[in-house]
Write a structure and sequence with these properties.
307 residues; alpha/beta; 8-stranded mixed sheet; 7-stranded antiparallel sheet; 10 helices; 32% strand; globular
């Protein structure tokens, strides 16, 4: 689906170049005003020329600011106002689950972000469904028959969101009477567009685009979840929300940017989670061998259980 959506919004010269490429391993398309177009394929960056991918910028396609503006208008269905709430957060999610990150001039009035204008660069991220990537860890994180509280540890690009998405599907498929709530703050797990998730997360309930504090507080009260899945916890507030959920008897499966177990010990606020044994399992992902590759499973004491 994302191929057709891409061709609907891309400038003509990019359509010609992309017609010669396979989309199977495409991760990102980076478009910067008057700069070479860069593709991320299987975690490696290449330049895009009319002839295909190249390693030197000499013949790379360059996009103009006008082309960036036109692409964004097409992606928003010619209504920037309709997507402005997402735009203020630096991205929009469109049909097919494509997510477009946006850099430009942030307009602030009375300490409140109003919009982003004078767009300088766009990053189109291609979502992936890798069915079964979380399957190897299911026996380690399920118990009677609810999932244990689990933290997914992953450096950028290692597929933590893909992993969480598959976990949501696995829970729905194998433990379908459990109530799973996805708190999709930035629209990356389920990629909701006009109220419909563009990516398969099974029978999960989804709160999309809200802060984690809103999602945890209102989701627990209104949806009575057995499991909450959320991406990229980072702040003290996020930690407090996880404490709130676990005190309410909810199993939380979350992710964090880190290179491994040792970095978790050093991250602000996360050492508290380790000391308090808030999480029962820690899953470490690596950047090699495709998204969602498990490097290790650790228990609540950070002792290695499996590799």
């Amino acid at each position: 689906m994302e191929h057709h959506v891409l061709f609907d919004i891309l400038p003509t010269n990019l359509k010609e170049a992309f017609s010669k490429l396979s989309f199977d391993n495409l991760n990102e398309i980076r478009l910067r005003s008057n700069q070479p177009v860069i593709l991320c394929i299987n975690g490696r960056n290449f330049f895009l020329a009319l002839s295909g991918i190249v390693t030197e910028p000499t013949y790379a396609i360059r996009v103009t600011k006008t082309e960036l503006d036109t692409l964004l208008h097409k992606a928003s269905n010619y209504s920037i106002y309709a997507v402005n709430e997402q735009l203020k957060q630096g991205f929009i999610t469109i049909k097919g689950g494509l997510r477009i990150g946006i850099c430009g001039e942030v307009v602030v009035e009375k300490d409140e972000i109003k919009t982003i204008k004078n767009i300088q660069s766009l990053n189109i991220r291609i979502p992936r469904e890798v069915r079964g990537c979380s399957y190897p860890v299911l026996n380690y994180i399920f118990e009677n028959p609810r999932p244990l509280k689990t933290l997914i540890i992953s450096p950028p690009g290692a597929g933590k969101t893909t992993f969480l998405r598959d976990l949501a599907w696995q829970i729905s498929d194998k433990y379908y009477l459990l109530n799973t709530l996805i708190l999709d703050e930035r629209g990356e797990i389920a990629a909701c567009h006009l109220g419909e998730n563009q990516l398969d997360v099974g029978t999960s309930d989804i709160i999309s685009g809200s802060s984690k504090s809103y999602g945890f507080e209102n989701g627990i009260r209104s949806m009575r979840p057995d499991v909450i899945i959320t991406d990229e916890i980072a702040t003290k507030s996020d930690i407090e929300m996880i404490r709130l959920a676990t005190r309410s008897g909810v199993s939380v499966i979350a992710s964090v940017h880190a290179s491994g177990i040792d970095e978790i010990r050093l991250k602000p606020y996360f050492s508290e989670l380790v000391t308090e044994q808030i999480f029962d399992r820690y899953i470490v992902l690596g950047v090699n061998d495709g998204p969602g590759k498990v490097l290790g499973v650790f228990d609540k004491n950070l002792q290695l259980m499996a590799m």
